[in-house]
Amino acid sequence: MAILCYHSVACGWDDPVSVEPEDFERQCRRLARSGRVVPLSAMLDRLESGREIPARRTVLTFDDGFADYAHFAVPIMRRYGLPAAMYLVAGSLTPEGVPVNWITGLPAEQAPPLLTVEEIKDLRAQGWEFGSHTMRHADLRTLGEEECYRDLKESREIISDLLSESCDVLAYPFGRHSEHVRRAARKAGYRIALALPEEPEERGPFAVSRTGIYRGNGGLTFEAKINPAYAAVRRLRQRLAA
Length: 242
Ligand SMILES: [Zn+2]
Fold this sequence. Notes:
The protein is α/β, with parallel strands linked by helices. The chain has one domain (about 1-240): Alpha-Beta Barrel (TIM Barrel), CATH 3.20.20. The protein is built from eight helices and nine strands. The chain has helices spanning about 20-35, 45-50, 70-80, 115-125, 145-165, 180-185, 220-225, 230-240, and strands at about 1-5, 10, 20, 60-65, 85-90, 130, 170, 190-195, 210. The protein has a five-stranded parallel sheet. Helix 3 (about 70-80) links the parallel strand 4 and strand 5 (about 85-90). The mean pLDDT is about 95. The structure holds zinc ion. Zinc ion binds near residues 133 and 137. Zinc ion binds near residues 63 and 64.
């Protein structure tokens, strides 16, 4: 299985989270050739019941809601007929907005813009999926369970209202979670939650593993990361190192 996690696709943003459009295009061409990319929504029942996506299937996800998604990533994925889901920081959809203060080493004033409400609605109308990445991208482990629950419920409601549909999927900021965070996510009404494990961790519908794709991941690294064996080998390596 491989659920890939991207953040930004943009020209010349020299940060690990940002992939150059030409590299992304090469990766999309490779994925399109495999003919095995499916939308996350098609895997929802399966993931909700605690199973993994079938080996040799790939799902594309994006976190943070950067505006470059509409300008670079979507046109490229459209060209190759690939579906994807984006996880939004719901506070950015409120009149007050939120500072983009979660990129390491980057002051919020210099952060790239996020998608606007109009762009999100427009993309949804074209079939692109959306989910929640919380209200303001806090590390949920640092919040108490009640505060966590309020954040997750509010962000879910904002996105559901905006798109006039149920918001079923949460992506944890930084991929981080803990027992009380998973409990709060379930209680807030999500069907599954996506992680981005750096260490061995609990698995199941509220800790669905993803594989991050970062700047400069070349052909061989990408090939390894989309290989169904990658997640299993990484888990094994983590276990041996633990
Ligand atoms: Zn994020």
